[in-house]
Design brief:
Helix content is 32%, strand content 18%. The protein has an eight-stranded antiparallel beta barrel with strand order 10-11-12-13-14-15-16-17. A five-stranded parallel beta sheet has the order 1-5-4-2-3, covered by helices on one side. A four-stranded parallel beta sheet has the order 7-6-8-9, with helices on both faces. The protein has three domains: 133 residues, Rossmann fold (3-Layer(aba) Sandwich), CATH 3.40.50; 114 residues, Rossmann fold, CATH 3.40.50.1980; 167 residues, Calycin beta-barrel core domain (Lipocalin, Beta Barrel). The longest helix has 26 residues. It is an alpha/beta fold. It contains 16 helices and 17 strands. β4, α3 and β5 form a beta-alpha-beta unit. Keywords: Ion transport, Signal, Transport, Zinc, Zinc transport. Belongs to the bacterial solute-binding protein 9 family. This is Zinc ABC transporter substrate-binding protein AdcA. It holds the Pfam family ZnuA.
């Protein structure tokens, strides 16, 4: 059976999950070393540092190859079938891995390097294209279909997490080598932490935080170190910006005295140089490290040295004197998008809904807050919004999510509340909705239900809020219950137990939260 250390059920539903422990029986090389294939350069280097002399690591994609568009040849697949393991970054980067993995032998272990990491939503040009559709449909993001930014490694902070993830998975696959892998990883993480410290020391409180780049591959770096990436193109190097977008950028660069426009050496610099020439500024290289040429590797370049070069390049911008009237391109968009999901709608658009919109089996997210699964979400919120620390966010959501009702099952007109294995089930009727206005000026709709069972007690009155204002099958919801009255429940705005489908893992829920 093919062993896998990744939980993306949608992507790899056809593959069996990793057996609990055990060695792979496939040792293709007669020297007894593990044979590990990797996809892109960062994964290649991270893996080499982890395994040391215990394995031979190969790089699948040739230098200069675009990972998104790569299609392995029959020969490449044959070579992969001789490997003990294939380590890839994630399906948002190597979109071809699902089909390739399905054609591999059962004893080739497939490892996802970002397993357990929460990703940021991908935005091709830094703008939200879903807002208009939301406003028209009267619903929020409930289709669970998102594109995520794969470029985690460009942030040393995230590189440390990725190395730890690969290490944990390899230790589980090859327990006889676990101590070696961990010792190697610890030594490498020490180097990465020093790099992380250098970025933090240099970029924290930078006088300039906006940087313009041809390839929007640096969002994680920007988020983790307090910068703001302004992209010419999109997440992929070959994405072409519109003429309107280029005009906006030219105007922004002129108004804000931007001195450098960054491009990546391995791709065409046409866009960056065209914009730079138009506005009369310089260009500099910012390397997203998707691949390195063999010449660069032979010359001693590696992840850390290139990231040190990137830091020096960024300092060309971040050390410039601050402009008193500097206004980030995102200043206008930092205000909450006026979407239905965020609480901006017309009264006339609000429609009645039935309990069928909430049908299903649901789990509380509170246990995932308690065990730390949601900590990455709080870290992102703190860095993206800057209004509270991650610890303060966790305290806020602890108050909101706290509940002793572990599961809720909704079928027909019945709601079943399960507390510590004990079930209480009652029938409900719909009694209308109420529109609430919050302190920030946005609004929400509570859908009210009342039990017809005289013994319902604390569950007699129930209200749902799910950021939708018209009939739609919900993807998650906040729920309020009590035995006093609907009016008293409407006064509760600090405590909102939250439920997601029972078949979602904690990390899937955390990832879904980042999409809102």
């Amino acid at each position: 059976m093919k062993k896998m250390i990744q939980t993306s059920a949608v992507l790899f539903a056809s593959l069996a999950l990793l057996a609990a422990c055990g060695q792979s029986e496939n040792t293709a090389d007669t020297n007894g070393k593990l044979q590990i294939a990797t996809t892109i350069y960062p994964v290649y280097e991270f893996t080499k540092e982890i395994v040391g002399d215990a394995a031979e690591v190969s790089l699948l994609l040739p230098a200069g190859t675009e990972a998104h568009d790569y299609e392995p040849s029959a020969r490449a697949i044959a070579q992969l079938n001789e490997a003990d393991a294939l380590i890839y970054h994630n399906e948002n980067m190597e979109t071809w891995v699902a089909d390739t993995a399905a054609s591999l032998k059962d004893d080739v272990n497939v490892v996802k390097a970002t397993e357990g990491m929460v990703l940021l939503p991908g935005e091709e040009d830094g703008h939200d294209h879903e807002a208009e559709n939301e406003a028209e449909s009267g619903s929020g993001h409930e289709d669970h279909s998102h594109t995520y930014d794969p470029h985690t490694w460009v942030s040393p902070h995230r590189a440390i997490m990725e190395v730890a993830s690969i290490t944990d998975q390899l230790k589980e696959l090859y327990p006889d080598m676990a101590d070696t892998f961990q010792a190697n990883a610890d030594a490498y993480i020490d180097e990465l932490e020093a790099l992380d410290d250098a970025y933090t020391e240099s970029l924290t409180n930078a006088s300039r935080t906006d940087f313009v780049t041809a390839h929007t591959a640096f969002k994680y770096l920007a988020v983790d170190y307090g910068l703001n990436q302004i992209g010419i193109a999109g997440l992929t190097p070959h994405a072409e910006p519109s003429a309107e977008r280029l005009a906006e950028l030219a105007d922004y660069v002129k108004k804000n005295d931007i001195s450098y426009i960054y491009y990546e050496e391995a791709s065409s610099d046409k866009l960056a140089k065209t914009l730079a020439e138009e506005v009369g500024v310089q260009t500099a290289v910012l390397n997203p490290l998707e691949n390195l040429t063999q010449d660069a590797i032979n010359a001693g370049a590696n992840y850390i040295s290139v990231m040190e070069d990137n830091l020096e390049a960024l300092q060309l911008t971040t050390k410039l004197p601050a402009k008193n009237d500097e206004a980030s391109e995102t200043t206008a968009t930092e205000e909450t998008e006026k979407t239905v999901y965020n609480g901006y709608f017309k009264d006339a658009d609000v429609k009645d809904r039935s309990l069928a919109d909430y049908a299903g089996t649901w789990q509380s997210v509170y246990p995932y807050l308690e065990d730390g699964t949601l900590d990455q979400v709080f870290d992102y919120k703190a860095k993206l919004k800057g209004d509270m620390t991650a610890e303060a966010y966790k305290d806020y959501y602890t108050t909101g999510y706290q509940t002793d009702v572990d599961n809720i099952n909704i079928d027909g007109n019945t709601i079943e509340f399960i507390n510590d294995g004990q079930s209480q089930k009652y029938e409900y009727k719909y009694v209308g909705y109420e529109i609430l206005t919050y302190a920030k000026g946005n609004r929400g709709v509570r859908y009210l239900f009342e039990s017809t069972d005289p013994d319902a007690g604390q569950y007699k009155y129930v209200q749902f809020s799910d950021h939708n204002i018209a009939p739609v099958q919900t993807g998650h919801y906040h729920i309020y219950w009590g035995g006093e009255s609907q009016e008293s429940l409407l006064e509760e705005v600090d405590h909102w137990p939250t439920y997601y489908p029972s078949n979602m893992s904690g990390i899937e829920i955390a990832q879904e939260m980042m999409s809102h």
